[in-house]
Amino acid sequence: MDRYRTFYIRCVIYLVRYESCRLLAVTTFCFDIAYLEFFLPLLSGGTVLVSSRSGASDAYLLMDQLSQYRPTHMQATPATWHMLQESGWERPLWLEVLVGGEALPWILKEQLTAGGGCIWNVYGPTEATIWASIKALYHGDAVTIGQGLHNTPLYILDEAGGLCPPGVIGEICIGGPQVGRGYLYREDLSAGRFVSDPFLSGGRLYRTGDLGRLHSTGDIQCLGRKDEQVKIRGYRIELGEIENVLQRCEQVRTAAVVAHADTSGMKRLVAYVVPEKEFEQDRIVSVIRKQLPEYMVPSLFIPLTQLPLTPNGKVDRKALPYPDAHMSVAPEYVPARNETEKLLVAIWQELLERDQIGIYDDFFFSGGHSLLAMRVGARIRQELALQISVDKLFQFKDIAQLSEYIHALQAGHTAGNTSSEVFEL
C-alpha cells in the first residue's frame, strides 16, 4: 500500500491540485507513464483528454488538438516536443509542459521556455513507481532532474556504495517505500538492481544504472547510462538483447549494436554485422523483425569483416567506425521518375542528410527513424497539402511505394486514416 499512497501523493501534491486541470494524454498504454497521465488529473477531479495513436505521432494533428481542446497539461518525451518545435509550434503559456522518458536536451529546454514560463523535467523509472523527482526549469537554467519527491531519497553512490561528494559522478539510486520488490520470476536480475538501503534499516534501494552528479544546490544532473541499456525516443532498450537476436541469425557470424546520436541530437540504433558469407541485409532484417518490436530494429546496418577487440578480447565499441548512412548496403540506385518522386527524394535527402537517394531505398535503413518519419509527414503536408499518418510512412518505406500512395490519395481512390478522436473521461 505504501507504493500506491506515494503515487497518490505525487499526483495530487505536485502540479495538479485543481478541478480545472485538463491533461492531454499522448503516451501509449504499454508505458507506465500512461497511468500517471490518467490519474494525475482524475485524482483532483480534472479531465483526461486521450489522444489517438495517429493524433499523438503527427505534429499537425497534435497541434490541432492542443489548439482545439486547450489542455492545461501535457506530458511527452523530448522527441515529441522536438517534433512540435520542428513543425513551427509555439508553446502557449497556458500549457504546463512536462518532459520525461529520456534525457532533456538543453537546446530543447531553451526553445520551450523562450517565450517565458517554465517547463517541468520529470525523472523516474518504472521500478520506483514512475516519478522520483521533478524540476521546474526556466530559460537559461542548467538541465537537472531536481531532488527526490516526497519520501523519495535520491543518492549518488560510488562503486563501493558510498555517497559521492558534490561534483563527483556516480550512480543514481532511489530509495523510499515506492521502490518495487523486484522483477517477477527474475531473481538473478533483481539481486543486482534492488539492494538493501544502507541509510535506512529495512529499506530498499533501486540502482537505476543512470550516471549523475550532485550540484551544490542539492539538485542532480543526469549524465546518461553506465551500462549497455539506452533510451531512444522514450523506449528503454538493452543493446545486448538486440545483439543476441542478431547473432542467432544464420546469416550473421557476430554483431554489435550501438546507439549513436545524429546531427539533431536524436539517438538511433546502428548494427555492425560480420556476415557468415555475403551480407544479406533484407534477410537479416526479415528474421529479426519477427522477434523484436519495430523500435528495437536498427535503422542502419554496417557490414564489417571483423569487430575490433580490446586487448582482453571484448568488443571495442569505441573503435567501431562512426556511422555514415552511405556505409549501409542499399539497393541499386534508381532515380526519380516523376515530379512527386523528385519532391520526395529532395525531402529525404535533406532530412537524412544524404547526397543520393534512390526510389527503392528503404527510409529506415537509410538512417531514418520514427521522429524523422514524422518530419517527412509534416513536409508532405506543407508541400502537397496532404495529411499522411506516420503509420502509412512505416507501411510505404520507399519512395516508389509512397509516391503511388500519394497519387492514389490525390486521385481520390483511397483515404488516409487521419482520425484523431479525443475522448473526455
Q: How would you sum up this structure, described in words?
A:
There is one protein chain. With 425 residues, the protein is α/β, with parallel strands linked by helices. It has three domains: 2-225, ANL, N-terminal domain (Rossmann fold, 3-Layer(aba) Sandwich); 229-326, ANL, C-terminal domain (GMP Synthetase, Chain A, domain 3, 2-Layer Sandwich); 339-411, ACP-like (Non-ribosomal Peptide Synthetase Peptidyl Carrier Protein, Chain A). 30% of the residues lie in helices and 21% in strands. It contains 13 helices and 18 strands. An eight-stranded mixed beta sheet has the order 7-6-5-4-3-1-2-18. Strands 8, 9, 10, 11 and 12 form a five-stranded antiparallel beta sheet that branches.
Rg is 23 Å
What is the CATH-assigned architecture of the largest domain? 3-Layer(aba) Sandwich
Query: Which sheet architecture does the biggest sheet show?
Result: 8 strands, mixed
Estimate percent helicity: 25-40%
Number of strands: 18
- As for the number of domains, it is 3
